[in-house]
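[Meeting: bench + compute handoff]

Bench side (C.D.) handed over the final construct sequence. Compute side (W.E.) agreed to return the predicted structure before the next meeting so the bench team could plan truncations. Sequence as handed over:
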Amino acid sequence: MNAVPAPKSPPKARDAARTAETILRAAQTLFAARGYTTTGVREVAAAAGVNSALVCRYFGSKEGLLRAAVEEFLIIDVFFDGDRGDFGTRSVGLLLTAETLPNPVAMMILATADPAARILCADLLHERIIVPLAAWLGGPDGLARAGQLNLLWVGFMVARQILPTRPVHDFETATVRWLAETTQTIADGATTPENGSLPPERIAS
């Protein structure tokens, strides 16, 4: 009589995915708080409660881990989900919501101390945010306007989350309203390509 084969163990894919996610969350927290250059693979592994060899197994290298850590937050499509006329208000709302997550701007800024990491973050920001944003904005100056929005948003997030400045906090409501209005103005194409200034009628209003 043949023995009944023992049931196979559950696939390890789910465990692998869970381990990879645990490593990623630990890396995001450490990269945002301490910086890429001062955080080692062993420290990430220790925070995740795994062997350091698993970091390289799942992410290839420390640089690959940084790519995954930053890439997860660079999603622009959600900004387009809604009426174009509400883009400014919607965008600012999403920026404020992002404050509850590990700070991607902090991860990227702190990573700039490493030349390779700086290039990686710049490339990711361009490919994942600026290029698709430019396509959505449209027009011959779409790329320039996308760059303006990137500067505006990153500057706001730095001033609010990384290096807080008193005006941002003392006049928070006015600042948020200004950011939403300026974002909408750029999205509407209400800037001149020569100097990037607002038309006289916009300034007067």
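W.E. noted at the follow-up: Residues 192-205 have pLDDT under 50 and may be disordered. C.D. will use this when planning the next construct.
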